[in-house]
Design brief:
There is one protein chain. The chain is mainly beta. Strand 4 and strand 5 form a beta hairpin. The strands form four sheets. Strands 6-8-13-10-11 form a five-stranded antiparallel β-sheet, with no helix packed on it. Strands 7-14-9-12 form a four-stranded antiparallel β-sheet, with no helix packed on it. It is globular and about 60 Å long.
Length: about 220
Amino acid sequence: REFAVRLETDTYRPDIHFSLDGGEPTASSPRYEKPLRLKRTAVLKAGAFIDGRMIGKPAEEKLFRHLALGLPAALSFPYKDQYNGGGPLALSDGLRGSRSSGDGRWQGFEGDDLIATIDLGKERKIGRVVSVFLQNSASWIFLPNSVEISFSGDGKEYTVIATLANDISPLDPEPRVKEFSADPAGKKARFVRVHARNIGVCPDGHPGAGNKAWLFADEIIVE
């Protein structure tokens, strides 16, 4: 699977130059002329140039290529519309959310767990599964209590590959993004399920104690 990336700018009639290795683009970097088709994980940086000089600062995005890229996750509980992360492909679009809950990348679940199942289309050998979550307790957003990763060959019978516990206090005030990662040692599966358990309600000691807690999920990376 691959990315198709289109670059745009508000600058009037610029040249757009880009790099794919995380380096700063210069006027001698490749010039953008048509949508880029990327077949690997890359750090894309791009800038608008006029007369060989960059206007402003370059834009930067890390694009994650993986087996689940572009495959919609079937959800047991729906996300809330105001935090849709971009829609059905939010968990598999190859883009990662920041520490800001309002960056448009996160899918929000109020009081509900995230139970997301991705059909890879055929049985694949899997080296790693990563699921990504946000904590911002000031906005009533908390990391899951735990994350369970399961595999299936037929979409009916699932085997738990890993249960990953959270080690960060829900009262920690620091906004943070946390990865829950499992290495299934090359096991094969067609269906990958991630079950992240919402803490349910804001904990004692929190200003919203007893009210529904938010769970914010982003990319599910299957390698």
